[in-house]
Specification:
With 238 residues, the chain is of the alpha/beta class. It is built from nine helices and ten strands. Strands 2-1-6-5-8 form a five-stranded parallel β-sheet. Helix 4 links the parallel strand 5 and strand 6. The longest helix is centred in the C-terminal third of the chain and has 19 residues. The protein is elongated, with a radius of gyration of 22 Å. The structure holds S-adenosyl-L-homocysteine.
């Protein structure tokens, strides 16, 4: 998979992508990351990529021409490409695990990272195929959001996670029926008066599996009852 990031802060990406799963994906050839400096597509020699909003008011707007040309340069590098061009934006649909799986099935992804007061709306009209938000709060730029989405997508790719059974029991996975994961413990067996649940050290795999299922259900009820309500609603619609 080729992942492109169009940004005015290219330095934010290298270090973040080289760690953990995204780094493994790159080293094994499962993914390649291309950080595109928007300023390389500026139309003047000062590298200007933003300007004042029409109609006045506070904040600067990323201009359409450099952004559209940056997307087109990526597109022409990817012959016959139908890669999603994703604008990180609070207006987008909120990112989910289902969306991560959908993106993981693509050959390439292009992320446009907004900054300042936002992006000239014509960028959306001309090149954006979908907008994605990572939640109902405002970031100062799309870079961290693009990294969040990329991390979630990369761990869905085949052969990136060492033990895929671990991923398949994570929260929101199909095996968990879109609920939360179970609680986990590791050594020592007792810490500050708190013992590890007896079942987990029993060696009885059937009982352990049952304990984990129960733990996942309890945690979902406690922390995310909305997920259970959603699952019920989905069930009753089928
Ligand atoms: N004026 C805009 C916010 C601009 S914030 C508004 O109120 O909707 C600057 C940039 O940060 C945005 O263009 C977008 O790329 C990014 N951004 C901010 N919040 C985000 C979120 N929740 N999800 C994804 N991207 C976000």
């Amino acid at each position: 998979m080729d992942v492109y990031f169009i940004t005015i802060f290219p330095d934010m990406f290298r270090e973040a992508l080289s760690a953990g799963m995204t780094g493994i994906a790159e080293r094994t050839g499962a993914a390649a990351y291309h950080v595109v400096n928007l300023r390389d597509f500026a139309e003047d020699r000062y590298g200007s990529v933003d300007d004042y909003p029409y109609g006045g008011g506070p904040g600067m707007i990323l201009m359409a021409p450099p952004l559209v040309r940056a997307v087109e340069s990526v597109r022409s590098a990817e012959e016959g490409d139908d890669a999603p061009v994703i604008l990180l934006s609070p207006c987008g649909a909120v990112f989910t695990q289902a969306k991560a799986h959908e993106f993981a099935s693509k050959r390439s992804l292009v992320f446009i990272c907004g900054r300042y007061k936002g992006v000239d709306e014509r960028v959306r009209d001309l090149v954006v195929t979908e907008s994605v938000s990572i939640g109902d709060y405002i970031l100062s730029g799309g870079e961290l959001a693009a990294l969040v989405v990329t991390d979630a997508v990369i761990r869905c790719l085949p052969n990136v996670i060492g033990d895929e059974r671990s991923r398949d029991t994570d929260s929101f996975s199909t095996e968990r029926e879109f609920c939360l994961d179970a609680a986990y413990y590791t050594r020592p067996p007792e810490f500050r008066g708190l013992p590890v649940p007896e079942t987990l050290v029993s060696g009885n795999h059937a009982r352990i599996a049952q304990w984990r299922e129960e733990s996942a259900r309890r945690r979902t009820e406690l922390y995310r009852p909305d997920l259970i309500a959603k699952a019920r609603l989905k069930g009753s619609n089928e």
